[in-house]
Amino acid sequence: MAAAWESAMGGDDGGDGGGGDGDDGDDLAAEWAAMLEGDSGGDGGGGGGGGASTARESTRVLNQDEIDSLLGFDDDLDDTDHRSGIQAILNSALVSYERLPMLEVVFDRLVRLMSTSLRNFTSDNVEVSLDNISSIRFGDYLNSIPLPAMLSVFKAEEWDNYGLLTVDSSLIYSIVDVLLGGRRGTAAMRIEGRPYTTIERSLVERMVHVMLSDLSGSFEPLSPVTFRFDRLETNPRFATISRPSNAAIVARLRIDMEDRGGQMELLLPYATLEPVRELLLQMFMGEKFGRDSIWETHLAEELWMTDVELEAVLDTQTMSLGEVFDLKVGSHIMLGAGPESSVALQCGDVTMYTGKMGRKGDQIAIRIEGRYEKPKS
Quick check: pTM over 0.70? Predict the structure, then answer.
């Protein structure tokens, strides 16, 4: 094949010096020339270079935008948009908050309660709005918190679990400015890169107490619960209340005070909401989710046909353990019941009827005289 390649490349210059294999060499040279023209666009002068160029063109490098789109981390996507790529596969195991319809009603009630309570708290015109509700893994949420921020850890007393309330820096400075008498129309002065002072932490903590009280009020029609303030953190690592892989619900609230305001995020792990999950599955308040009246009627009819065992108890005696061990074949136990004594009919440990013992044919029978009435103490 090497000889044929040399013959093909030198066929245009060398005339008729090919020898006896000239016809075969010409055919093979024509075949190679056609292959090179198909790969390199017809450039017959540099066959080897054309093949290397084709190999380089087939190895395409993705740019950053294409990589982000493949992984599903496109910044242009809104939080409400559907994710794609690998990110969609990773989040496919998350439980959507839309499966808890009553949760939207709870958050809507929270917005209305906070609008009133924050107006009384700040003596200013406060507007509270619910931006969105989303499901997210707890570890991803901690990594997405824009710092600096204050993270308030609170506990649901009746549910024996925790939640997280995040207040961003804009809302912190706005609350401090409003409560300390800042003038309207002037933006709150921010000094980045410094820790929050004791006064700022104290004022934010007071606002958190107001918000937790409203959160308890929003859940009250569904299930009474008390949210108790636990601690205030500025480092997300110290506000870990759940495993990073656990799913949680995040409600983003927007608080506007004329030209000031900020965002507040409420995070409730699914483990925290588990005690009231059945109530959150309701489509409307007071609904018994999953109730089927036809099935209930059928079940009630079948219960009337259920076979139960009744035991006739002639007498009960209390004996010591030693007397029980002394019993042997042939021992007699004297019963404290006569022929006219009442016999108790029991179903399990529950006494249901009383009657008299007699005989019907060859069988011992009990004639029921009435229902058993428990003696009044």
Answer: no
List, in order, residues 6 or more apart from 106 with CB less than 8 Å away. 218, 219, 222, 280
Parse the chain into domains and list their residue ranges. Answer: 2-58, 94-280, 311-371
d(C-alpha 247, C-alpha 95), whole Å: 7
Q: Could you report the per-residue pLDDT of 61-90, keeping only the tens digit for each?
A: 778 777 777 666 555 544 444 555 565 665
User: Which H or E element spans position 350?
Assistant: strand 350-360
CATH 2.30.330.10 at 311-371, yes or no: yes
What lies within 8 Å, CB to CB, of 157 at 6+ separation is 225, 226, 227, 228
Q: Which residues face 251 on adjacent strands? A: 133, 266
Q: In angstroms, how far is the first alpha carbon of the chain from the final one?
A: 114
Buried b (16+ CB within 10 A) or exposed e, 36-66: beeebeeeeeebeebeeeeeeeeeeeeeeee
